[in-house]
Amino acid sequence: MAFAGYCYYRRAEIRAMAAEPAGERGASASKKQRPPLDHTSMFETPTAMSVQAIGVIRSPYKERFGTPRQATVWEQSIGNAPQDGEIHLNGDPRYEHALRGLDGFDYCWVICWMHLNTGWNPLVTPPRGPRTKQGIFATRAPHRPNPISLSALKITSVDYKNRIVHVKGLDLLDGTPILDIKPYVPYADAFPNAAAGWLDNIEDKKGPDYLGYSPPPPHLRQKEDKPETEGVSGAEERT
Amino acid sequence: MAFAGYCYYRRAEIRAMAAEPAGERGASASKKQRPPLDHTSMFETPTAMSVQAIGVIRSPYKERFGTPRQATVWEQSIGNAPQDGEIHLNGDPRYEHALRGLDGFDYCWVICWMHLNTGWNPLVTPPRGPRTKQGIFATRAPHRPNPISLSALKITSVDYKNRIVHVKGLDLLDGTPILDIKPYVPYADAFPNAAAGWLDNIEDKKGPDYLGYSPPPPHLRQKEDKPETEGVSGAEERT
Question: Where are stretches of biased composition, namely Basic and acidic residues (chains A, B) (predicted)?
Answer without folding.
Answer: 221-239
